[in-house]
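Key result, reporting period 2: structure in, sequence out.
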């Protein structure tokens, strides 16, 4: 089953809330843990136990595990495996982007089921040119995995690249061009394509983008960072039904209390279901 189909089914069953599992050093201390591998393991696996049975997608940010070296990556492997065992899809936040054989190696590391880091989907950066992602695209198709391509991020530096106008027909912005590529990749997919976009939940407006590209939209910045359900409706319009709203601190700050974290996931899913009509 393609990633798009798995995601569509998971969201229908559990709701469109994506929980980031991001072990910031400050959060480890807030939970009463040391900023070391033991603290990382208790934090990350405690979060998995609390939220993975109740949300459709979890999104570990790889960097917060990599900073501990091989032992941290071993914890990430357990987060991936135990989240999937609990019924959640795993979107690994790596934002990789390279060319040729290096891009293929990244794709094999994160999308090939033979890898201990294999996930249902990953985030990728297209800003070396969308064609540089072809190894990721091919590997995702081969293994029924998904991609979420950076398109219109909400960081203040983003527009200097993403809103630049290309030389192609119609003077498309870089963001618009990325969405055009995704529209082609998702053509004829039912009920949802496997190639998604990352579009911030805190944008001032939709940047004039055509967000109807038949794929999922990862919207980071929901909740603690200021994005609201009303913002999702305002930014995404009719495409809001394909939005996967993402938050990490809004849930993680409630730890290490698993009941409070679980309640936050269930409550947020209820709020977000309004977008699906």
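The corresponding designed sequence is given below.
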């Amino acid at each position: 089953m393609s990633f798009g189909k798995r995601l569509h089914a998971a969201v229908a069953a559990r709701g469109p809330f994506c929980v980031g599992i991001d072990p910031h050093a400050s959060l480890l201390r807030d939970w009463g843990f040391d900023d070391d591998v033991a603290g990382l393991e208790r934090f990350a696996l405690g979060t998995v136990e609390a939220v993975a049975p109740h949300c459709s997608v979890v999104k570990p940010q790889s960097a917060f595990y990599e900073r501990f070296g091989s032992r941290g990556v071993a914890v990430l492997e357990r987060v991936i495996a135990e989240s999937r065992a609990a019924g959640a899809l795993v979107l690994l936040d790596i934002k990789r982007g390279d060319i040729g054989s290096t891009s293929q190696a990244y794709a094999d590391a994160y999308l090939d089921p033979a890898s201990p880091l294999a996930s249902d989907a990953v985030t990728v950066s297209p800003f070396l040119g969308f064609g540089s992602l072809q190894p990721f695209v091919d590997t995702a198709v081969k293994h029924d995995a998904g991609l979420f391509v950076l398109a219109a991020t909400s960081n203040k530096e983003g527009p200097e690249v993403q809103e630049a106008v290309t030389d192609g027909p119609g003077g498309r912005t870089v963001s618009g061009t990325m969405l055009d590529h995704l529209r082609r990749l998702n053509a004829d997919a039912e009920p949802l394509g496997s190639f998604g976009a990352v579009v911030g939940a805190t944008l001032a407006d939709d940047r004039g983008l055509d967000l109807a590209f038949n794929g999922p939209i990862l919207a980071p910045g929901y909740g603690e960072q200021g994005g609201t359900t009303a913002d999702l409706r305002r930014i995404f319009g009719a495409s809001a039904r394909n939005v996967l709203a993402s938050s990490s601190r809004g849930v993680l700050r409630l730890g290490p209390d698993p009941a409070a974290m679980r309640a936050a996931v269930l409550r947020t899913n209820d709020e977000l279901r309004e977008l699906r009509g």
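The CA atoms of residues 51 and 249 lie 13 Å apart. The first strand starts at residue 17 and ends at 21. This case is discussed further under Risks and Mitigation.
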